Amino acid sequence: MKSYENLKAKSVSIEKVRDYWKGKNIPQIWYSDIEPGTVPYYNNVRKQRFEFYYPYLKDSAEFQYHKDEKVLEVGVGMGTDIIEYARYGAKVYGIDLGADQIEITKDMFQKLNLSYEDLKVASAEKLPYENNYFDFVYSFGVIHHTPDINSAVNEIHRVLKPGGRAVIMIYARGWKHYIKRCFIHGILKMKIFKYNFDWQKVYNEVSEVNGGSPLTQVLTRRQVKKLFKNFYIESIEKKRLGEFFEYKPYNTVKAPNFILNLFSLFGLEGLFGENFLIKVQKSNSKTKGKIIDVLWKHY
C-alpha cells in the first residue's frame, strides 16, 4: 500500500503553522468566559470539553486505563486532555509547537495540583524522545495541521514501545465538510473560484473557529489507512456530529431529540461524523483470524 501524500500540504512551512496557533487561536481557550488562569476557569474548560463539545472523549480517549504508563500527548493545546491522563495516574509527557500552549499547560498542572514528567516546545514531525520510549501516545486534532503528516505518524511509531498503542483524531469528511465547507463556502459563496479550484485552500480558510488556517487536511478513510499502514489498526471510527446536533453553535439552535434519536438508532454518526478516531498498535505480528477457526477450533 502506498503512503498518503499531500503535496500542497508540504508547501506550507511549519513556522507558518506555529504562528497561526497563538492567542485567540489556541484550542479551547474560548470555552469559558471565567477569568483565565484561575482554577474555576480550568475546571470550566474541562467541563465544556467533556460534557458539551466532545463527550465521546470520556470513554474513547482511554484516560482511566494508563495508570503508571509513560503517556505522550502530541499537541497539548492548553493541556485539557493530558491533565486527564495525569489525574488517573499516568506519567505524562507533552509537546506543542507553541510556547504559550506549554506555559498554559504547566500553569493548569500547577493550579490543579497535578504533576507531569516533561512538557516542551517541539514539532510533531521531530519528537524529542528516544526510540521505543512510550507505552501510549495520544494526539487530538493536531497532525492534520502539520505539513509533513507522514513524518508525524512515523515519529509516533518510532517513540512507541513494541506493542505500544496510540489514539489519534484526524478530521474526517463528514456532513459539515460536504455541506458547509464544500457546498456553502466552496460553491454558494464561490470560494472555489477565489482559489482557482484549489479545494485545499478552501478547507484552510473555513475549517477552524476563527478561519484562515495555513493548513487543515481533511482525510478519507482510505487515506487514513494509508497513513497508518505501518501500524496494526485496531479501529477507525467516525465520531461527533457536532454543531446543531450536540450543541447550539453560537447560541442558535439544536436539533430536536427525535432527530438525534434517529441518528443514533441508524448509526448515522458513523457515516456523517466529522472526526476520525483512530486506534492503532505498534505491532506487525498480528494476523487476521478466520471465522471457520472460531467456529470449528476454538471454545
Broad CATH class: Alpha Beta
* CATH topology name: Rossmann fold
Give the CA-CA distance, first to last residue. Answer: 35 Å
Specify the biggest β-sheet. 7 strands, mixed
Average the pLDDT over all residues and give the rounded result: 95
Description of the molecule:
The protein has a single domain (7-173, 210-296), classed as Vaccinia Virus protein VP39 (Rossmann fold, 3-Layer(aba) Sandwich), CATH 3.40.50. It is built from 14 helices and 7 strands. The protein has helices spanning 7-10, 14-20, 39-53, 57-60, 80-87, 99-111, 149-159, 175-188, 191-194, 199-206, 221-227, 257-265, 269-272, 291-296, and strands at residues 70-74, 91-96, 118-121, 134-140, 160-171, 232-239, 275-281. A 7-stranded mixed β-sheet has the order 3-2-1-4-5-7-6, with helices on both faces. α8 (175-188) packs across α10 (199-206). 37% of the residues are buried.
Structure, briefly:
The chain has 299 residues and is α/β, with parallel strands linked by helices. The protein has a single domain (7-173, 210-296), classed as Rossmann fold (3-Layer(aba) Sandwich). Helices cover 38% and strands 16% of the residues.
Summary keywords:
single chain, 299 residues, alpha/beta, 7-stranded mixed β-sheet
Topology, please?
Elements: H1 7-10, H2 14-20, H3 39-53, H4 57-60, E1 70-74, H5 80-87, E2 91-96, H6 99-111, E3 118-121, E4 134-140, H7 149-159, E5 160-171, H8 175-188, H9 191-194, H10 199-206, H11 221-227, E6 232-239, H12 257-265, H13 269-272, E7 275-281, H14 291-296
Parallel strand pairs: 1-2, 1-4, 2-3, 4-5
Antiparallel strand pairs: 5-7, 6-7
Helix pairs in contact: 8-10
